[in-house]
Design goal:
The structure is a homodimer. The first copy, chain A, is α+β, with helices and mostly antiparallel strands. Chain A has helices at about 15-35, 65-70, 75-85; strands at about 5-10, 40-45, 55-60, 90-95. Helices cover about 40% and strands about 35% of the residues of chain A.
């Protein structure tokens, strides 16, 4: 049994490619910082389907408590506030046991 | 390098628990049928965060072509038409290289 956090982002249509690139780079850095909690995988949509969102993040953690610690981490909150939220049009998330 | 398909569902607020359970069971069956393409993991939201969606599906495939075959599979299309679409309020998806 483990615990998985899945989140999808759709960026604002008026966000710049520099802002999007910076968000991806911030996610990359956060993935390294978050290794203490679990394994973070993310990626940018490959453009195969109409209506897709922009970016997916999947985090595999040992348990629910590790997720709560991951979510509350100050570096995580700072990354979201600085790089994600300013260009965020929509966010959808599910956390579930695996 | 591999390829990941991430999809989140939000069910209609007037869907019944029987319909939702049937959709989850259909996803479970489809996960077994889809083993020829890759590894499918899914789960129902644990209820830790306000505003979360209901169900997450993550499929890890060897490459983009395997995803296209997975997506087009007739059993997949039938499962979506019979169990997912009737109770679907919102869907968000991203496919990306890993």
């Amino acid at each position: 049994m483990g615990f998985r956090h899945v989140v999808l982002f759709k960026w604002k249509s008026d966000s710049t490619s520099e802002q999007r690139d910076a968000a991806i780079e911030a996610l990359r850095q956060w993935g390294r910082d978050a290794e203490q909690y679990g394994a973070l995988t993310f990626g940018t949509d490959a453009g195969l389907a109409e209506g897709n969102w922009d970016t997916a993040v999947v985090v595999d953690l040992p348990d629910r408590d590790a997720y709560l610690a991951y979510a509350a981490d100050e570096r995580h909150q700072k990354m979201i506030a600085e790089y994600i939220r300013p260009i965020l049009a929509e966010r959808a998330a599910v956390q579930h046991e695996t």
